[in-house]
Write a structure and sequence with these properties.
Elements lengths: L29 E5 L6 H13 L4 E5 L8 H20 L3 E7 L2 E4 L9 H4 L14 E3 L11 E4 L6 H13 L5 E5 L15 H11 L12 H23 L9 E6 L6 H5 L13 E5 L15 H17 L6 E3 L5 H13 L3 E4 L11 H13 L1 H5 L2 E2 L3 E5 L1 H8 L31 H15 L4 E5 L13 E5 L6 H12 L3 E5 L19 H4 L9 E5 L2 E5 L4 H8 L2 H14 L5 E3 L4 E8 L2 E8 L24 E8 L6 E7 L8 E2 L3 E3 L2 E8 L2 E8 L5
Parallel strand pairs: 1-2, 1-11, 2-3, 3-7, 7-8, 8-9, 9-10, 10-11, 13-14, 13-15, 15-16, 16-18
Antiparallel strand pairs: 4-6, 5-6, 12-20, 17-18, 19-22, 20-21, 21-27, 22-26, 23-24, 23-27, 25-26
The structure holds zinc ion.
């Protein structure tokens, strides 16, 4: 294959990527590549040159580390990884190598006498019924027929086996280890792990015996649900600390499949538990598509909102650190929009075609997107969010409300012809999950109202995160710890506005147990008992309470009164920095870099499935680009003058360039067209904040 010859550095003729610099993690553009045994030198050079030409800065390298390898096979693999890494480093590419944390595949393990599970039955995860978490054959797309997929208990002797292999992988010279799926898999059994190694630890730390059946009324069960999040979070940190003395610079990048939806309750890996203090460990989030085979092509409006919400949640979890996300798509139109939504949220893209890891939607597509992102990487990844509204996400409230019953990743149902669609029955839909639909509905109101917002997991909330925030919305925040409640109350007393919607707030603790006194009793005391919006002054701030599920009513019934109620509180609490007049299917974000305001506009109308088209996909459905026309109104901050106004866009129809605008009485107004993704950059001559 041919590659574009790029100017090498220092007289070297190798095609070489730009120096990735100190902030290579935050500004990563990631491409996956498989390197199998027998990969010749010539092929390796070609592949690496193509990756450089595509504009990637990081390789996710994949070989046979998923398989149970003999010591000799492992040695050979590590030699090859070291060689590939050296060649990639010559081209300025960073290398992160794929190694599943808790899944071990034994090829042909079904019929062989020896396999990971058969040789080490006490090392695997067990569920509450005592069944091992092991399966054979093609129950997942990455497990070949006849292979054994064994899910390992991280507290068993497997722990040292794994940490030692991470150590050896680290010594091969890679920059990081891509630790896939450190979680409790639920392909064949639910509710793990009750291996005695885990049970002993749970008992020692909580005083409860591990549960043997699912019972949400049982205090030990509820505690176990919470403990599993804590425990897997600790394990992710330990992957780094186990070898930190020998490999202090090695990055541990945990591939995290569940986002904020209910799979996190079942699989227990909850990325919101990893706070900003975690050292050398972070996330690459596998944000799935509605369909494994067709990406986001069959998605409807609310599915896209879920996608946007998940990216924003990921960024909220990774505050103060890099945030990598899969930008799975099927073809350019849906993949481009997925990447736009990710980048607008501040997430670094891993480009691949759903559902595989080392593919691409297209070399030309990757190059178009990555080169644009590289050109604007400071604006995209170093700008500070300017949102003044925060939506609180609460894993405890989700766990104890929704109880993992509906997966609720997306809003729409697939059709029978597409077996790879995530959800095939109503019980699995977003609408079947009370917590998640209230939380999503609030995000939908804010997105439609063009109110820029952040999603902040309550688990890692710090007082400093609320310093520039005017409004906190807490949908169905039933479960909360004393310390978390104190942070929100102090935010209000200092002048903030707090809006509660849905389930009564603060009735339970973080383990789902009813409290003697409501955690927000002091703030709620002045409120009446009606179902209309109630409000009371608290300190210098104000608390609002709606006993109605405003988010759910807007999500499921498009209730205008629910929308108006939430929007009304936003308008009272926030002095909007920018006003956007445009259709609901354009999502907006606002950030500030130096003296430039950046308004991100993501238009998902063209990639949105209509209800009428649903029955036709996947055989005849075609997406098309549909422009959106918008008007922006931006009152200049006091003392500021306009330097330039530009539109920045990876869309071929609207290349980067100046945007015409009017300036009247200190207000910038402009009209513009958005195909898929456009950033309005208003550059000021004086500091704007
Ligand atoms: Zn275990």
């Amino acid at each position: 294959m041919g590659t574009t010859a790029l100017a090498g550095l220092g007289g070297c003729s190798l095609p070489t990527a730009a120096d990735p610099g100190e902030r290579w993690l935050e500004q990563a553009r990631i491409a996956g590549q498989a390197f199998f045994v027998g990969f010749g030198d010539r092929r390796l050079e070609e592949v690496l040159d193509t990756i450089v030409a595509s504009g990637a800065s990081v390789i996710e390298g994949d070989s046979n580390m998923s398989d149970l390898l003999s010591p000799m096979a492992l040695g050979q693999t590590l030699d090859e990884i070291a060689y590939v890494t050296e060649k990639a480093h010559e081209r300025n590419l960073k290398v992160v190598w794929y190694y599943p944390a808790l899944e071990v595949i034994t090829p042909n393990g079904e019929l062989q006498d020896s396999s990971m599970f058969k040789d080490n039955p006490s090392w695997v995860q067990y569920n509450i019924e005592g069944k091992p978490n092991v399966f054979y054959g093609s129950k997942e797309h990455w497990v070949d027929p006849g292979a054994e997929s064994a899910w390992m208990c991280h507290n068993s002797p497997y722990r040292d086996f794994f940490f030692d292999r991470v150590r050896r992988l680290g010594h091969s010279g890679v920059d990081g280890v891509w630790c896939d799926v450190p979680l409790y898999m639920d392909t064949v059994v639910r509710w793990v792990c009750t291996n005695p190694y885990c049970n002993d630890k749970f008992l020692a730390e909580t005083g409860y015996a591990a549960p043997t059946r699912e019972d949400w009324d049982d205090v030990a069960w509820r505690r176990w649900i919470h403990w599993r999040h804590v425990e897997l979070d600790r394990f992710c940190r330990d992957i780094y600390t186990a070898n930190a003395a020998e490999l202090p610079n090695l990055q541990i990048i945990c591939e995290t499949v569940p986002l904020d939806y209910n799979q996190a309750t079942v699989q227990a890996l909850a990325g919101d538990f990893l706070g900003a203090d975690a050292k050398n460990v972070g996330h690459v989030w596998e944000v799935d598509s509605v369909s494994n085979d067709f990406g986001m092509k069959p998605a409807n409006h609310d599915d896209w909102l879920c996608k946007i919400r998940m990216f924003k949640f990921a960024k909220g979890c990774d505050r103060g650190r890099y945030c990598w996300v899969f930008t799975y798509g099927h073809q350019e139109l849906d993949a481009g929009l997925v990447m736009a939504a990710a980048v607008a949220a501040g997430c670094a893209p891993y480009e691949t075609q759903t559902p595989k890891m080392t593919t691409t939607v297209g070399v030309a597509f990757r190059k178009r997107m990555f080169s644009w992102i590289a050109k604007h990487q400071r604006a995209l990844f170093d700008a500070a969010p300017a949102a003044r509204a925060v939506v609180i996400q609460s894993s405890s409230s989700r766990d104890y409300s929704d109880q993992g019953k509906a997966e609720a990743m997306y809003a729409s149902l697939g059709i029978d012809a597409d077996e790879t669609y995530w959800q095939h029955n109503d019980e699995q839909l977003l609408s079947a999950a009370p917590y998640l639909s209230e939380y999503t509905g609030i995000c939908k109101v804010l997105s439609h109202a063009k109110v820029p917002f952040l999603i902040q997991p309550i688990q890692t909330l710090r007082a400093t995160y609320l310093e520039d925030v005017s409004l906190v919305i807490a949908p169905s925040l039933a479960c909360i710890s004393d310390a978390q409640a104190a942070l929100l109350l102090s935010f209000v007393r200092d002048g903030g506005t707090l809006l509660f919607t849905g389930d009564p707030p603060g009735e339970k603790d973080e383990y789902g147990a009813l409290r003697g006194e409501n955690a927000f009793a002091k703030a709620l005391v002045g409120l009446g008992s009606g179902s209309d919006l109630q409000s009371a002054a608290v300190g210098r701030g104000r608390v609002y309470l709606s006993r109605q599920s405003l988010g759910r009513r807007y999500l499921n019934q498009s209730s205008t009164s629910a929308f108006d109620t939430v929007k009304g509180v936003c308008d009272k609490a926030i002095q909007h920095a920018v006003e956007i007049d445009g259709p609901p299917h354009v999502h907006s974000e606002h950030s500030v870099l130096d003296t430039s305001h950046l308004i991100h506009l993501v238009n998902y109308q063209g990639a949105m499935q209509s209800a009428a088209a649903t029955s036709a996909y996947p055989f005849t459905h075609r997406l098309e680009e549909l422009d959106a026309e918008l008007k922006l109104r931006f009152p200049l901050p006091a003392g500021a003058k306009v330097n330039t106004v530009r539109g920045l866009s990876p869309d071929p129809q609207t290349p980067d360039g100046p945007l015409p605008y009017e300036l009247v009485a200190g207000v910038v107004t402009l009209s513009l067209r958005v195909v898929q993704y456009r950033v309005v950059e208003i550059s000021l001559t004086e500091a704007s904040s």
